[in-house]
Amino acid sequence: MNPLSTACQQYDAPAWSRRQMLQGAACGFGSLALSGMAADAAAKETSGGSRAHHAPRAKRVIFLFMHGGPSHVDTFDYKPELQARDGQVLPFAPAKNLDPSATSKAKLLGSPWKFSQHGNSGLWISELFPHVAKHADDLCVIRSMQSKGQSHGQAVCMLHTGTDNFVRPSMGAWVSYGLGEENKNLPAFISISPSASHGGPRNYGSAFLPAEFQGTTIGRSGKLAEGSSFRFLKSTADDSLQSSKLAFLQSMNRQHLERTHNPAVEGMIQSMELAFRMQSAAPSVIDTSDEPQHIRDLYGIDQKETEHYGRQCLLARRLAEAGVRYIQVSTPNVWDQHGNLKEGHTKNSLAVDKPIAGLLTDLKQRGLLEDTLIVWGGEFGRTPIVQGSNGRDHNPQGFSMWMAGGGVKGGFAFGETDEFGYYAVQNKVHMHDLHATMLHLLGIDHLKLTYRYAGRDFRLTDVYGNVVHELFA
User: Fold this and answer.
1) What φ, ψ does residue 319 adopt, rounded to 5°?
2) Strand ranges in 80-138 using DSSP code E only, listed in sequence order
3) Are 158 and 195 in contact (CB under 8 A)?
4) Distance (Å, rounded) from C-alpha 454 to C-alpha 429?
5) Dist CA 307 CA 371 (whole Å)
6) Would 58 disulfide with which of 84, 126, 173, 373, CB 3.0-4.6 Å?
7) Largest CA-CA distance found in the chain, in angstroms, rounded
8) How many CA atoms lie within 13 A of 409 on its CB side?
9) For the segment 318-357, what is each residue's pLDDT rounded down to a tens digit?
């Protein structure tokens, strides 16, 4: 027998798994590709991966969050009786937990703004929103909203996460978890200029859902400067060097994951891989400098009063076009007029009215409005009684929000508050109901979208929520 052959038989070939071979070969690029495919497969298995429970009416959501709570009786809920009895005492008991200086007197405060009917539908809209009013026949106004939480912190958390006091996944995280990403080079959930107050990251966080489903932010506290980008996205290395670095780092991450089986590590791995893909795909999406002047004018980007929110709304349209599923567009906490109602609401509406109307126009002319659900509103409304000499307190007992596009009826008002606008009295829509309805329009059954954590199944609507089918076109 050949001595060399005998010697070779004394050694066994290394038993490498396919995963180990991919990690070791070509600087780990094979493993990087594998992990990308595995992430797609995992999304389909664990989150439904774009498998809706029923045929969707909307493919995406743009949520226009008016932080602070705009007054419904001064915007979309016309109350002639409130105007007629301005200065008189509220003829029934006001809600509890309000400012005693307001409730002890409980004097009605008529709206400083005129209301008029708009569009073929004749929707009542105040003069605070002249540009949005031109889209009256696209609006589905819910005038009987109710929420839980008298304070901002509670109500904002309720609006974004479905609970007023627990750390729970945000609405966008649930949508991302349920549907996965449409564009693998962009996050499924992006929050534009989120506020740092009243929950901050909780309002776009994933809580106990895997970290990959939390919102990616751009801009901060209502500001979005020209040329803004995702934080920490830009690389200082060339593409080949960056690829090598990522492959090496990810190979160590994968080894660590195999040892620990920690879901948080998996989320970190996937977020880093997404960040690498975003470095080439995201800049062209978020760079609005290539937009023609007539589009910039449409959103009011070159006007001082509307430049910030106009830029946010334009970016929202570009993200919607690029396949982002859930987009939050926030104002700072500016709608909280406990005093100086007229001055504050005039300034705030001026900043958002034209950009929102521009967004509706732009989506419509591009054929995107029919499968894009626009949702407008704050965490609550304001009281019809005066606070101090010229303000209004918080009112989660009855307020207005509106939707447009995405399968809802246009030129339609649903529900009613009482004759003064204090309490929802007809066709009440709780925040849980709104969440259930939004999910339904996206093709998701809110009863089936669950995640097991701490020994029980959780869902966005907890044990509540009814789909409001009357809102559907």
Assistant:
1) -70, -40
2) 115-118, 123-126
3) no
4) 30
5) 27
6) 373
7) 113
8) 14
9) 999 999 999 999 999 999 999 999 999 999 999 999 999 9
Q: Within 1-150, where are the H helices?
A: 3-8, 18-24, 29-46, 80-84, 100-103, 130-133
| Dist. CA 371–CA 204, nearest whole Å | 23
Architecture of domain 47-227+287-471: 3-Layer(aba) Sandwich (3.40)
Please tell me the pTM assigned to this model.
Answer: 0.84
Contact in structure between 401 and 413 (CB atoms under 8 Å): no
The tens digit of pLDDT for each residue in 381-433 reads 999 999 999 999 999 999 999 999 999 999 999 999 999 999 999 999 999 99
CB 123 within 8 A of CB 141: yes
Structural element, H or E, at residue 8: helix 3-8
Q: Where are the alpha helices (DSSP H) in 91-164?
A: 100-103, 130-133, 152-161
| Alpha-carbon separation of residue 444 from 129, 147, 176, 177 (angstroms) | 32, 22, 11, 11
By C-alpha distance, which of 332, 304, 296, 321 is closest to 193? 332
Beta strand 416-417 with 424-426 is antiparallel
Q: Given this model, what pLDDT does residue 27 score?
A: 55
> pLDDT tier at 221 (50, 70, 90 boundaries)?
low
- State residue 283's pLDDT score: 76
Domain residue spans of the chain: 47-227+287-471
Residues 6+ apart with CB under 8 A from 336: 68, 69, 152
Neighbours of 264 (CB within 10 A): 11
DSSP state of 386: -
Other C-beta atoms lying within 10 Å of the C-beta of residue 118: 20
In contact, 406 and 61? CB cutoff 8 Å: yes
Q: What are phi and psi of 400, to 5 degrees?
A: -120, 145
Instruction: Extract long-range pairs of 193-196: CB within 8 Å, 24+ residues apart.
Output: 193/218, 193/219, 193/220, 193/221, 193/222, 193/223, 193/224, 193/308, 193/312, 193/329, 193/330, 194/220, 194/221, 194/328, 194/330, 195/67, 195/221, 195/222, 195/330, 195/332, 195/333, 196/220, 196/221
Mean pLDDT of the region 357-374: 98
* Torsion 394-333-351-375 (CA) sign: negative
pLDDT at residue 44, as a whole number: 42
247 CB neighbour count, 10 Å cutoff: 18
Non-local (6+) Cβ contacts of 143 within 8 A are 72, 76, 77, 400, 413, 414, 415, 416, 417, 424
Residue keyed to tokens 């809920």: 77
* Mode of pairing for the β-strands spanning 399-404 and 139-146: antiparallel
| One-letter amino acid for residue 93 of the chain | A
SS3 56: coil
**Separation CA 194–CA 212 (nearest Å):** 18
Fill in the amino acid letter for 413.
A
- DSSP annotation of 115: E
